[in-house]
Amino acid sequence: MNVNLIGKHEKDSRASRDALALTLNEMMAQDKSICYVDCDLMGCINTKQLMKNYPDRAFEAGIAEANGAGIAAGLAATGKKVFFHSFGTFSSRRCYDQIYMSAAYAGLTVHVLGSDAGVTAAFNGGTHMPLEDAAMYLSIPESTVLDPCDYEQLKSITQQLPGITRGVTFTRFVRKDVIQVYGEGTQFEIGKGVVLHESDKDVCTIVTSGIMVDEALKAYESLQAEGIDVRVIDMFTWKPLDEALLLKAARETGAIVTAENHNTACGLGSVVANCLAHNCPTPQEFVGVQDQFGQVGPQSFLMDEYGLRAPVIVEAVKKVIARK
Amino acid sequence: MKELNVKELQILAARIRLETLKVIHSRGFGHVGGSMDLADLMAVLYGAVMKYNPENPRWPDRDWLVLSKGHAGPVAYATFGLMGFYPLEDAYTLNHPHTHFPSHTDRKLTPGVDLTTGSLGQGVSTATGAALGNKIDGRDNHVFCVVGDGEADEGQVWEGFHFAYAHKLDNIVYFIDNNGYQLDGPTATILDHGDIARKAEAFGLYTQQVDGHDVAAIYNAIVNAYAKKGVPSCIVLNTSKGKGATFAEVSHEHSSQPSEEKWAEALAAAEKALAEAEKA
Predict the structure, then answer these.
(1) Which residues from chain A sit within 8 angstroms of residue B128, using beta carbons?
(2) Which residues 89-118 of B have a C-beta within 8 angstroms of A?
(3) Taking the complete model, does pTM exceed 0.95, yes or no?
């Protein structure tokens, strides 16, 4: 795996949504079986161009997510590779039974996109803040659940999704500003974690994804300054989990901290803990939203409010090392 | 589409009723009411209207059947068996462990089942999505989607109609099985629809209302639907829940678990009805 880590904590000049929209636009030109269904939110993720360029394969289902999910499943039954988008709250909670039964249970693959992951819903507030979206998709048998951190990663995931033909997939992503973690040329593989830092002196591993990758990198730097070596893994695929990579890290470093932009009661921390409990019981601390509802405000405020910050990760690392 | 032969279709409907009873009898209990009232529709669809290939159930140019009221599975299993999709006896494993014939229709399990249904309302959307997919591919085929009148309590049914109208899907025909009953009792007392045909019409569907036990009326309504371009069609079938099952046709019950004696009576009556149809 070729990793071009930038990690300067600087905002990418490109909007995250364009990684999806521009890539899909290219893919739909190449592959005539790709269809796109949206629920009146094309304008929010710049996918109106798909309807303009491919009017016979990109559709509005209107503000009717349950039906939209069923339309997507029906299209899949005719052999189409279908992407289905709404805000993360609505492409999970609002159409869960439809995705579960009409698509997953029926053996039909639909690639579900949930924009505004976690606290990045910011000014749309608690009603629009998906902190349980991934939990719902993790619960569906045969599903794939993804939480990309930046433009390059979302682009790569988008390119790989049509290759998944078993189960439904769910990709939660940021619409607008993202910190650039990776430079061009980085190769990602769905199902494989990315090791961002490692040494044979590591005393803990931070397992993270999405907007928390940059916070984890900041935490790494703080810990380095204090002489504490930690491993950092970008586990952007929550399911299927890269168990081999996780267990190697658990065995070699003996302590785990997970950091996620999601409810810790049923997210990345939970799938990691589940794997560790079965294979290699390891002390673990959970950074993320602590079984709370979302609320309105700037993203920076919300990250402070819910403890989605590097200093919180640093404290969690020290705490978990003390538990070894 | 084959030419209308009323007698042939009436015989087929009687045969479907008898076989539907046998399929459910193999388990002893099941959704008799909402299966039996669709026998005449199934006879028209599989005896005269639809393109299908039992040797190749997923033939891409086939017409599709989606029982959005998925609990009517047994009438589909009886029909598909009669049409040669599998030996009829296979369906006598209804709801037994590891069967290919579950209560609600499942595309992964049963040859001839195009989409999985069971959670009510969802088949309308998936059938509509399939019609859209067939349209993209320029196929000369139709999707037939059967919706229960009780099922139409689900808002998703109407979302699906709305979508089909807005996207001008004239390759789908929705049937509303207007039998007037749902699990808790008469539809009018549970959640009154008012005039369901007018509602469908208001959603932009080309809507007809016919006697759901009159094979010629059903056939002719489908001919009209085929001729209508640019809009989806809806055919409201006025039916009697449990039609042809002696223990269910009076009570209009949603599911039945009659005694063996009552089963024997019902099977004998269905045999007799078939013999009469053949003699007529």
Answers:
(1) 67, 70-71, 74
(2) 106-108, 114-116, 118
(3) yes
